[in-house]
Amino acid sequence: MLLQQFVNGLSLGAVYAVFAIGFTLIFGVMNVLNLSQGAVFMWGAYVGLEMVRTLALPLPAAIVVAATIAGLLGVLSEMVVFRPLQQRGAHRWMGMVGSLALARILIGLAQEIFGTQVVRYPDNALAGAAVELLGARLQLLQIVAIAVALAMMLAVASLLRFTNLGRGIRTVAFSESVARLVGVPVGSIRLLTFFISGALAGGAGVLWSLLFQSVSPFMGDNILLKGLTVLILGGLGNAAGALAGSLLLGAVEVGSVVIVGSGYRDAVGFGLVLLILLTRPSGLFGARETKRA
Fold first, then answer.
1. Beta strands 136-139 and 130-133: pairing type?
2. How far apart are CA 63 and CA 242, in angstroms?
3. Which residues pair with 131 in a beta bridge?
4. Which of 27, 38, 125, 215 could make an SS bond with 224 (beta carbons 3.0 to 4.6 A apart)?
5. b/e for 243-271, b at 16 or more Cβ within 10 A?
6. CA distance 22 to 200
7. Would the pTM of this model clear 0.70, i.e. be above it?
C-alpha cells in the first residue's frame, strides 16, 4: 500500500511539476503571471486526444504534436497580450488581466469546437497494463507518465543550464536592461520562453488526461490554481522550488485521500501550503526579493 501511494503521489506531482515549471519560467522572465496557461493545458489535452482518436497517431507522436500546438498558443499570448501592453506602457499586472481574458476566449473556442461533455482518451495497451513490484500492483501508465514528465523536465533543465538560449533566458530573467546591454535578443528570447512554457503546459495536459481519463473545456482551471500554489510554495520564479513544491503537493494530496478521505484532499494540501508560508513567507526555496538592475 505504501509503495502504491508513493507512485500515485509521484505521478500526480510529476504532472504538476511539468506545468508549474513552465508557469515559473514566464514569471521568472517577465515577473508577471500568465493566467492563460490553464487554457493552454486544456488545449494540449484536446489536441493530443484528436491526434490519437482521429489521426490514429501513436501516443508519443500525439504528445509531441500537442506540445507543439500548445507552445504556439503560448507564443500567441505573448504576441497579442503581453508585448502590446508592454509597448503601450501598461502596468505589468495588466498583462495578467489580459491573459485571463485570453484564457476565457480559448475556453469558449474549445466549447464550440469540442463540446462541453467530458471525454476520455481511447483505451490502449497501457490503460490496463500493470507491473508487480514488492507486492504492489503498479499501473504501467503511471510509470510511463512519470518517465515522460521527468524527461521533459530534464530537457528543460539542460536547455537552461548548458545552451546559449538557456543563458539568454536566465539573463533576461535577471534584467532585461542588462540583457540588452550584452546583446541578448530580448524579443526572441521572450517568444521562445513562451513557446517552451506553452509546450510544457500542453504536454502536462496530455499526461493528466491519460492518468485521470478526463478531458473537458474547464480542466485547466484546477491545474492553474495548483500551478499558482506551487509557484508560491517553491519560491517565486524558482524552477527547482517549483519541482520540489509540486512533488510535495502531490504526495500530500494522495496521502490525505488515504488518511482522511478524498473530500478533504484540497483542504489538507492548501492547509500545508498556508502552514509553510506562515513559517517561510518567501517559499521553500525563495529568497528576499532584490531590486533588479
1. antiparallel
2. 22
3. 138
4. 38
5. bbbbbbbbbbbbbbbeeeeeeebeebbbe
6. 6
7. yes
